[in-house]
Specification:
Strand order of the largest sheet: 6-9-11-10
Distance between the termini: 61 Å
Radius of gyration: 22 Å
Strand content: 5-15%
Largest sheet: 4 strands, antiparallel
Shape: globular
Length: 513
């Protein structure tokens, strides 16, 4: 049965759409810390248009969103595959659309019910309760061949992707109590302890349930599955990265010990053993729950910041869409998140002089998908770069290796709008002003809201919409327009009881010089 918006919701979207033209997003606007009335109306317009992209991404019969769609929102331009993260993003975006008034309660309930019914029937790894990385959104079948290339797929179960699906399920359960039983039945089977390596006190990137016939994977069974799986050769070792959502959920469910919160690196220790990383950190050792922690930070333009792995916005700020880290950890995350945003702004507006900012993995305007970031805000030596030319900053590691002269110019910088939406909470005026400039100066806004990325010197635009990136935008707008709705649904209960005390223990070695 086809879904139709209620008359009230249809009228609301139509009214918002009257102002949803690029001209409405022009002009830098006031650079203040609070929303003006005009800003709030503009944010509602952006929410309405972004939701339109999800309406086009989802396959009505299954309730599964596609991974991506063309800028004209035609069904034939869908990518033909989806992931657990995409499904989680659609669940929370549907709730945002309801809470902001873009769709009615009945429509939201029907959409959520369709998706949950399909998810309950997806093939998964029975012993862990985890979902595979790729499914056909039209049928729900696990993909064994990638539709865009025909390449074979080795079915993989990702810790971070399952973390975002579990987030969407938890949110849906609390936002729509009539569906709580269905959502909880799926989520409560998911055991994040299956990713936790007690020897390293860290989680793995994921596992294959059949031997991938590659040299890096490590056979093991961390959660009593009764049979080995093949884990990724790497752990998620950096603290300030998006996989921490899986860690939080595992701790909240008692599947991962609390000490794991302190098992990853704020920065790597101050030693030449780590001189392949970005630069020498400052900081001191501390101990929490018996775990030694190097409270390190990296210097950047007069600040000391706990970096991400690559220097991108979504690594740092996707998790606090749902978990109030800066409130629970006022001496740690509460100090770091605003500094991290300031670093991104500093790079785009001053160091690289692009005139725009917001660097995060996105579609490449030249084709394909790429990681973008601010090199010096990442732990990794090469880091993610902000321009198409991959201009890196090779800083010295004092006493261990020399660096190279800093670049005197940067190339064709690529900004992605979702990065500015992630920053709304920490630099609202500057975020709205940046988005206004992007809409004013480029052909960067379409029927589904902001296109995914813009190369600001060539003017090349990636005219596609990605479910993940649109989902981050919807979550940010749901918090902004509906009184922190995303956090109110996810954070209370076990997550707050178990994770908040851990965040409250710690003081990051961050600040301004």
């Amino acid at each position: 049965m086809r879904r139709h918006r209620t008359l009230v919701a249809t009228a609301a979207v139509a009214a918002l759409a009257l102002t949803a033209v690029p001209a409405s997003a022009t002009g830098p606007g006031p650079d203040t810390g609070s929303s003006t009335g005009d800003d709030r109306r503009l944010l509602r317009t952006w929410a309405a248009d972004t939701w339109r992209s999800f309406d086009a991404l989802v396959v009505e019969e299954t309730g599964l969103p596609d991974d991506n769609i063309g800028g004209d929102l035609s069904p034939g331009s869908r990518g033909g595959y989806t992931s657990p993260t995409n499904i989680g993003a659609y669940l929370w975006s549907t709730v945002v659309a309801r809470d902001v008034g873009l769709i009615g309660r009945a429509e939201a309930r029907e959409r959520l019910a369709t998706t949950l019914d399909t998810v309950a029937g997806l093939e998964l790894h029975e012993r862990s309760g985890m979902f595979y990385n790729w499914y056909d959104p039209a049928t729900g079948a696990k993909l064994l061949e990638f539709p865009t290339s025909g390449d074979p797929v080795k079915p993989f179960l990702s810790s971070v992707d399952n973390g975002w699906l579990a987030t969407g399920l938890l949110l849906a359960s609390r936002a729509e109590p009539s569906l709580a039983e269905e959502a909880d039945a799926v989520r409560e089977r998911m055991d994040f302890g299956c990713y936790y390596d007690p020897a390293q006190n860290q989680i793995r990137g994921g596992f294959w349930d059949t031997d991938p016939q590659e040299p890096a994977p490590v056979a093991g069974d961390y959660c009593g599955m009764g049979a080995d799986v093949w884990y990724t050769g790497h752990h998620y070792g950096a603290f300030n990265t998006e996989p921490r959502i899986a860690s939080y959920l595992g701790i909240a469910e008692g599947q991962i010990p609390a000490k794991h919160y302190f098992g990853t690196y704020r920065t790597f220790p101050d030693s030449c053993d780590w001189d392949w990383t970005e630069t020498r950190p400052s900081g001191e050792w501390a101990e929490y729950l018996g775990v030694p922690v190097f409270e390190g930070a990296l210097p950047y333009r007069g600040m000391r910041v706990v970096p991400t792995w690559g220097g991108s916005m979504f690594e740092a700020l996707m998790v606090p869409l749902f978990v109030p880290e800066e409130t629970w950890g006022p001496r740690s995350w509460g100090r770091n998140h605003p500094l991290y945003v300031r670093g991104q702004i500093e790079h785009g507006m001053r160091e690289a002089d692009y005139g725009y900012w917001g660097f995060s993995p996105s579609n490449d305007p030249a084709g394909g998908y790429r990681e973008y970031g601010v090199d010096q805000l990442g732990l990794d030596g090469p880091g993610y770069t902000s321009d198409q030319e991959r201009t890196t900053v090779d800083q010295p590691y004092e006493g261990c290796r020399e660096g190279s002269p800093a670049p005197t110019e940067f190339g064709d910088g690529v900004v992605t709008p979702h990065a500015s939406f992630l920053a709304l909470r920490y630099a609202r005026g500057e975020s709205v002003a940046n988005l206004r400039r992007i809409a004013r100066d480029f052909d960067a806004y379409g029927p589904g809201g902001f296109y995914d990325a813009v190369a600001v010197r060539s003017g090349q635009v990636s005219e596609r919409y990605l479910a993940l990136d649109q989902g981050m935008i919807m979550a940010a707008l749901g918090n902004e327009l509906a009184d922190d709705a995303m956090r109110r649904y996810v954070a209370p209960g076990a997550l707050e009881r178990t994770v908040r005390p851990l965040m409250a223990m710690e003081t990051f070695a961050v600040g301004r010089e």
